[in-house]
Amino acid sequence: MSILIVTSACQSNYQQPVSHSHKASAHKVVGKYNRNPQAAAYNVQLGIAYLGQAEHERAKQKLMIAEKQDPHSAMVLDAKAYFLEMTGEIEKAHEYYRKAIKFNPGKGMALNNYGAFLCRQGKYQAAEKQFLLAVQDNQYLSTGEAYENAGLCAIKSQQYVKAEEYLHKAIQKQPKLANSLLSLARLNYDKQNFSAAKQYLNAFNRFAKPEPESIQLAFLLADINNDAEAANANLAQMEKLFPNSNEYQTMREYYG
Fold this sequence. Notes:
Elements (H helix, E strand, L loop, with lengths): L25 H6 L5 H16 L3 H14 L4 H13 L3 H14 L4 H13 L3 H11 L8 H14 L3 H14 L4 H13 L3 H14 L4 H13 L3 H14 L4 H10 L1
């Protein structure tokens, strides 16, 4: 099963960036970096967008400006850490994830993001500890996402019973978490609890767009029920939406 663990989305109410179209005095340039959380949030958004487009220099520039504008912000420090991680500077990334927690003790978002980083590094037990600390923050509104990350990380470490426990807690907190629903569908399929697998898959399909894994799972459930029409429909959907996916090739080979 695939695993997707990401940092919390860096979004806020942003203001327009400061224009650089005119010349400014040295005093004004320095003043531009006075603490400004709104501008920092905007630059984080730009930096992460540039990172997603592999424009690393532009991403770095925006995140450096954001850090000057709000140097202790968990959102800013986490974004800088994620950039460093994605560009291969793991030790520096670790330092920034820890810095986000240091300046924002007990903050669920920073703890969740650090846990996700540790899981991506294969440090599963340490990651679990951070996720469980995150859900203890009463001000953190995304405790479901922390439980989801704990569950997905448990899957990665092949602790499937623990994974189910965390994923159930995730959807209790946030019922529309697509990764949790799809993972629970797959876990139940693997246990041959096909009825529960179908229920979770149906819930996933209500809240999320089709993914190669969700279509493949629907195909397998249709095959178990000897429903050739549904199996063919899933095969056709996969061919239309994800013709280059490994799942599609597997389905074609399976169906002969």
